[in-house]
Design brief:
FAD/NAD(P)-binding domain; about 475 residues; 3 domains; 25 strands
């Protein structure tokens, strides 16, 4: 049996590793479009900042590690066509030589590509690009181009278009390199994946570290700055009132999200679904015989709201593992995502899991959201930090639907959002959070952990509303 995985990132590699794990005699080939298989795209901002000193360290596994598992890794090979009936994959190497690879089962893990908004100067035949100092950021190739700008042009200032996860991490990373950073966000608040009250706390953290932040700002044009300007580029934008905003900077980074890379599978006849992503069932099968798909190119089965598109590295790893197992004849199902995420912003961290209030209402629940603040450990022990929490539950059934947290990077935000994720995954009620047997010692926690105090606050509000 020959399994071929297209894509050298999380989903494709996870599928290949699972297949080799289950059947060491299986013939597994991974087709990688570039020379960087199994690299951590999530780690790129920390290489840009200098915290990760060598880009090679971003590899989850080296090429040697992957080949030691027995898989065949074909680098710099672009998959261009799937013949579903003939079960062949056409690939083109870096020299332009074509090759047909026969397969028994195929896993498509082509991931996502950077969204390119319709900004004048960013699209069209005369669009500015990396050679000029205008960048998108999603791959190792993008990373090296950005580093060339930083190391050869020595920019003193940067504009970042977008204030999502990567945008926020890059604001910190470029600030760490000494650049003056201006962040432009079209939406009313930064980090729109959390509620505005927590986004405002993230906003304040950016301001406190010298980042200029302009929300409600739509970028219209990126062009070269006139002679004598304090920067190489002129960025023209409009605020929500229609007032012109002009920012000058030496480099521009556009990070406004991603879209699924479905060209290969779509051309072969794969059905597309939410967000234009490849439709798969929970076994990661597509509508094409012998073809599975996983990762940022596919729809996401969410445990609370059904089908959506939610590209996350953690999800891609899990989906790839399911696809690899089932391609060998298994029957495993992807358990579903909760969209659990965490991001560090300078000295603080923000996290979420499950649904926010408006998402819960759209999914058919009767949501109640309550905000609460508690210390991360006993305040009498030095160094305690306050955690701001937002709990969303179904006011009728009491079921826990979502949690959002914001606090200091040393306040175990990631650990605590994972507690909430485990509770939601297992369909617990908010009240049951108080029954969890969590660890306690004064330097690290409290007899009632902060997440339990937040849950208790939600229950009090639910009960007071019911009276």
């Amino acid at each position: 049996m020959h399994l071929v995985a297209v894509g050298g990132s999380d989903a494709g590699i996870s599928a290949a590793l699972r297949a080799r794990e289950l059947d060491p005699l299986s013939d597994v080939t991974v087709v990688v479009a570039d020379a960087y298989p199994n690299f951590s795209i999530c780690g790129i901002p920390y290489y840009i900042s200098g915290e990760v000193t060598d880009w090679h360290n971003l590899a989850h596994r080296t090429l040697g590690d992957l080949r030691d598992t027995g898989m065949n890794v074909r680098l710099n090979s672009m998959a261009t066509d799937i013949d579903v009936a003939g079960r062949t994959l056409l690939v083109v190497d870096e020299t332009g030589v074509e090759d047909l690879i026969k397969y028994d089962q195929l896993v498509v893990g082509t991931g996502a590509v950077s969204a390119r908004p319709p900004i004048d100067g960013l699209v069209g035949d005369d669009a500015l690009g990396p050679a000029d100092g205008v960048h998108l950021l999603h791959s190792m190739g993008d990373t090296f181009e950005l580093m060339r700008t930083l190391e050869t042009l020595h920019p003193a200032s940067a504009v970042i278009v977008g204030a999502g996860y990567i945008g926020l991490e890059m604001a910190e990373g470029l600030s760490a390199r000494g650049l003056s950073v201006t962040q432009l966000e079209q939406l009313p608040e930064v980090l729109s994946t959390v509620d505005p009250s927590l986004g405002a706390l993230v906003h304040a953290e950016l301001l406190g570290h010298g980042v200029t932040v302009k929300t409600g700002t739509t970028v219209k044009k990126i062009g070269r700055a006139p002679s004598g300007a304090t920067g190489r580029f002129k960025v023209d934008a409009l605020d929500t009132a229609g007032h012109a905003i002009v920012v000058f900077a030496d480099m521009v980074l556009v990070v406004v999200g991603v879209r699924p890379n479905t060209a290969l599978a779509g051309a072969a006849g794969a059905e597309l679904g939410v967000g234009g992503a490849i439709s798969v069932d929970r076994t990661m099968r597509t509508n094409l015989e012998g073809v599975y798909a996983a990762g940022d190119c596919v729809v996401t089965h969410h445990r609370l709201m059904g089908l959506t598109y939610l590209p996350l590295g953690t999800t891609a790893h899990k989906q790839g593992r399911v696809a690899g197992e089932n391609a060998l004849g298994g029957s495993r199902k992807f358990a579903g995502s909760l969209g659990t995420q965490v991001v560090k912003i300078f000295d603080m961290a923000a996290a979420r899991t499950g649904l926010r209030d408006h998402e819960a209402a759209a999914a058919g629940f009767d949501p109640l959201t309550v905000e609460f603040i508690a210390d991360d450990h006993k305040a009498y022990y030095p160094g305690s930090h306050r955690i701001t929490m937002r709990y969303t539950g179904d006011r009728t059934t009491g079921r826990l639907l979502g949690v959002q947290l914001f606090g200091h990077k040393h306040a175990e935000i990631a650990k605590r959002i994972d507690i909430a994720a485990a509770a939601i995954f297992n369909e617990m009620n908010v009240d049951a959070m108080g029954e969890l047997d969590l660890s306690y010692t004064p330097p690290l926690g409290s007899p009632w952990d902060a997440v339990q105090m937040g849950a208790q606050a939600w229950v009090r509000d639910q009960q007071s509303i019911g009276r």
